[in-house]
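A quick aside before the break. I want you to see a complete sequence-to-structure record at least once, exactly as it would be stored in a machine-readable document. Don't worry about memorizing anything.
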Amino acid sequence: MFPGTLAVQSITTTWPVVSTAQNGSSVADSKTQFFSLYGYPTWRKDERGFLVRDQFDVATGAQVQHIADVNTALTTDQPAGWTTPPNGGLHLITDTTIDVLGRALFVMAPWITIDIGGVATLARPTQMFIYLDSALENWVGQGYAAGTATNYSYTLINPVSITLFDEVGHTLDEHEAIRSYTNGPLVPTDSFLQSSYCRRTTYQWTDSCRLASTRSIS
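That is the input. The structure line, written in tokens, reads:
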């Protein structure tokens, strides 16, 4: 518990011993999880000693960063005594940018090396989200970001997935469309004419909110 509170600070789960005769290790493996004062799971050590670190936005509860296989030489807030195990430390970071409602705007995966015009380039696979609440539309784009955290250069990979809803949340239309340019992230000012659609499904609902039919075009 955190001092002076009833908030759980850490939980350790110890599993039953599985003997070597049953293809086990004959060791009581365990995992440990630490929490923030607000109850968010922040650190985890798995049964092999590998570490995971998560960060959350306190106001919305949305996860804003996930680090798999933490290299503790690059962090300062790990639980006392926790260090990267041998052969560990890949430090694979996924960052999520959120809006005021906690919805993801950009989800940037760990760095990889990709071939761009025959040149090996470091980039982060990226999902991009647009919420047009007044129009009852959501857009999702895929692409990648290159450069540095303060000056990323985004590239969109077509098509863009677009979903239209009614006022009660029923999906009315799902289609994929081609944006006319690929440089830069998906932005709310983008427009997609019907001529840009490459695939489409519409949904028809009854007055009693039952799905009556779907129609697909590809």
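Two observations worth writing down. The chain has no helices and 14 strands. The two ends are 56 Å apart (CA to CA). We'll return to this after the break.
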